[in-house]
Amino acid sequence: GASVQTICALTSSLAYLCIGLVRAWASTGLPSLNDSNNSTNPDMLATAPLDTDTCSWIVSLPPLGAILGSSLSSLSLNYVGRKFSIILAGVFFFLSFILIGLASISSSVG
Q1: What residues contact 50, with CB distance under 8 A and at least 6 apart?
Q2: Is the CA virtual torsion 82, 83, 86, 91 positive or negative?
Q3: Residue range 64-96, pLDDT digits in tens
Q4: What stretch of H or E contains 101?
Q5: Are 14 and 95 within 8 A, CB to CB?
Q6: pLDDT on residue 85
Q7: Band of pLDDT at residue 109, cut at 50, 70 and 90
Q8: What angle do helix axes 82-102 and 2-34 make, rounded to 10 degrees?
Q9: For residue 97, what are the CA distances in angstroms to 17, 46, 103, 105?
Q10: Is the peptide bond before 62 cis (omega within 30 degrees of 0)?
Q11: What b/e string do you get for 29-67 counting C-beta neighbours within 10 Å, with b at 16 or more?
Q12: C-alpha separations of 33 from 24, 60, 110 in Å
C-alpha cells in the first residue's frame, strides 16, 4: 500500500545520501586522520601518516564494493522484488551507520 511506497521512497533517498557520504568521506576524513600535527582530532591514528598503499586501498574499496553490491542486488531483485529490495538495502544502510556511530577508534582501527 501507500505506507510501503513511502518507506521505499524514504529508503531510496537515504541510499543516495549514504552513497554521497561514502564517496565524499575520503576527501576530508583521510587527510584529517593522517595529520600527525592535528592535536584537535582525538581519533587520529597512532600510525599517522598512513602510507600511500593503505590510503589508496581506503579510497578504492567503495567502488570495488559497489561492483560486488550491484552483482548481488540482482539476486535480491529476482527473489524479493524491487520495493522490498530497496527496504532491505535501507535496513543495511541504517545498521551500518549505527555500527559506525557506536565504534570506537581503538577497537575498530587499532
Answers
A1: 30, 33, 34, 58
A2: negative
A3: 888 888 888 888 888 988 888 877 877 888 888
A4: helix 82-102
A5: no
A6: 82
A7: very low
A8: 40
A9: 12, 24, 10, 15
A10: no
A11: ebeebbeeeeeeeeebbeeeeeeeeebeeeeeeeeeeee
A12: 15, 17, 13
How many angstroms separate the CA atoms of 62 and 89, rounded?
A: 16
Confidence of residue 42 (pLDDT cuts 50, 70, 90): low
Please tell me the distance from the alpha carbon of residue 73 to that of residue 77, in angstroms, as a whole number. 6
The residue written with cell numbers 600510525 in the block is 47
Q: Which residues of 69-106 are buried (b: 16+ CB within 10 A; e: fewer)?
A: eeeeeeebeeeeeeeebbbebbeebeeeeeeeeeeeee
pTM over 0.85: no
